[in-house]
Amino acid sequence: MTLVPIADGPLRLSIGNGRDRRQLVRRLFAFARPDASLPDLAMANQIFEAAREGILVTSLAAEDLSVTHVNLAFEKITGYRREEVIGKNCRYLQGNDRLQPEIATMRRAIAERQEVTVTLRNYRKDGTLFWNEVTLAPLRDEKGEATHYLGLIRDVTPLREMAARLDASARLDRLTGVLNRYALIDEVDRLRSTLSGRILILKIDMITLQEVNSGYGWDAGDCFIKQVALRLSGLAPDLLGQFGESQFTLAHAIETPDDAEAFVAAAIAVMEPPFTLPGAIVQARFALGYVIGDPADSALSLTRQAGTALRESRASRLHEPRQFDQDSEIAARKRIRLTAELQQGLRDGDFLYHYQPKVDLHTGKIIGAEALMRWQHSIFGLQSPDVFIRMAEETRLILDIEARGLRQVAAFAKRLNTGRPAPLIISVNISPLEITHRDLIALVRDVLEESGANPAWITLELTEGALTESSPEVLRILRNLRTLGIGLAIDDFGTGHSSLRYLDTFPISEIKIDKSFVRDLAQNGVKRIIAETVIALGHHLAVVAVAEGIETEEEKQLLENMRCPMGQGNFFCEPVDEAAFLALLSDAD
Ligand code: G
Ligand code: G
Ligand code: MN
Q1: Which CATH number characterizes residue 248's domain?
Q2: Of 160, 189, 209, which residue constitutes the final position of a domain?
Q3: Range of 147's domain?
Q4: Angle at 142 between CA 138 and CA 145, to 5 degrees
Q5: Cα of 361 from ligand 3 centre, angstroms
Q6: Which residues line ligand 2 (CB under 6 A)?
Q7: Which among 53, 58, 273, 527 is least surrounded, fewest beta carbons within 10 Å?
Q8: What distances in angstroms separate CA 457 from CA 135, 185, 413, 486, one per listed residue?
Q9: pTM (global) more than 0.70
Q10: pLDDT digit string (tens) for 49-88?
Q11: What Å distances lie between residue 362 and 64, 140, 367, 540, 563, CA to CA?
């Protein structure tokens, strides 16, 4: 087989793709048989040189396939001139990059005289890498014997790079350039498979982001996110990814738990300095959860474990960092079940109240009652608030539960007081979330209107926790409630950040001295002084002091002597259901 170079200028001819192309070129070479005419050969040669694909022909005669022909496109793609390659094996294109599995595939195909297409990393004469899509096909003589191999080569580097860029951009967060959730999971799986030690997965949730977004705008929020990403990447974690807007996940190979502690401490430290944003300087508050994971666990399960720890950190008051442990996961599962049950309970109307009388300490007369919520669980029976209030608050279900509860209490007050010359005041406990997470004024207005209850019959009990943030907004709500005619009590006084300023600052009508004071009154001088002061100030400011948890005659007597106007406790009566409370009243009448 000979090709006679005749052409002066290359013929502009594109010769299709894939199979068509291969068949065409094979036919071209059929021109070059001994019986081919000279014009045929000339044309074949022009086409050979004009082809966009690099073409090389190697001879199977020698043991080590040597190149017999290359075209112009081959020279252009590889940078080698034909004199430099003819007579040699073309593995110099592979440089030192010999361990590519595709090379073995190619070799096997040649040994079996098969056609094959592979994409290889090849190197130009100047040493630069290009991705070479090679199609190899045997050329056969008239007896059908393979004598040569035809190679078609295409430089697919630009395609590869574009694909890689697309792939990368699908894996990265647009804003921060860190891995997105899916890429991170993949990468964690890759990382852990290389590890002998442990793997630390750390999650950070930027609590402050919401405030920044709503207070300073989205641009400031984006800037904040970017700066956090930057600071975290400064820790040089093995992997950094973003889960949603406000959550970052870091993965880091560690040898000992001490390494983990050090890394966590560094993460906390790096978030400490204030962030300078357009129009604001903010201190980042963040929740942090982590797991010192077993690389045998899947990435998904490791990130979930860190997520469980993060959720606990988020739920804690000061967002303390939390480490995942198995027990807390079990607890988390229980919480999920409890949440579902609470929702069901709400649908089924399983929440009700027990009532504990409040008594005038001087006359011993019942002047009202505290409504204490109970949950009539379908299997476990009557449940106390300790079992469910916390969870109901975490899930915000408390808002629905208490809205319904408030309607119940108002309706009960209406029934109770209609036609009663000295109406009874019913107190009901409300969650601090009622102040911060809903329009409480609107709810109370609705409830009063629907029930027809007199606002003076209802007192809301708030714990000190609800009042620690004495923002103007909180004050406004409390004032409006008082303007509506509703009573306001501070509950559990003395157990939290007790401050006598409450009596002055907040528009309250009642203060409930916690049972721990009542218990200690006889023994503890300081507590006695506080109680006496509260009672005295109460008389002065027209705030009613109520002593809670009175259990003995002695306690009652002490408080009466201190001129405490009202009391409540098992000494008088335990919390009882509605019917029992009504019976109690009719006995007293
Ligand atoms: O009734 P005990 O009865 O065990 O009440 C326990 C605690 O639950 C008390 O501190 C009480 O203030 C609180 N509590 C009772 N009912 C309610 C309620 O309806 N809402 C809220 N938020 N707390 C309640
Ligand atoms: O809302 P508050 O935290 O004040 O709820 C009062 C709690 O005190 C309820 O759980 C109620 O059942 C409980 N309680 C009522 N009377 C007594 C009592 O005499 N002794 C004790 N230890 N607890 C009481
Ligand atoms: Mn109470």
Answers
A1: 3.30.70.270
A2: 160
A3: 19-160
A4: 45
A5: 18
A6: 356, 372, 429, 461, 491-492, 512, 515, 548-551, 569-570, 575
A7: 273
A8: 91, 58, 7, 8
A9: no
A10: 888 889 999 998 877 889 988 999 999 999 999 999 998 8
A11: 115, 119, 12, 18, 9
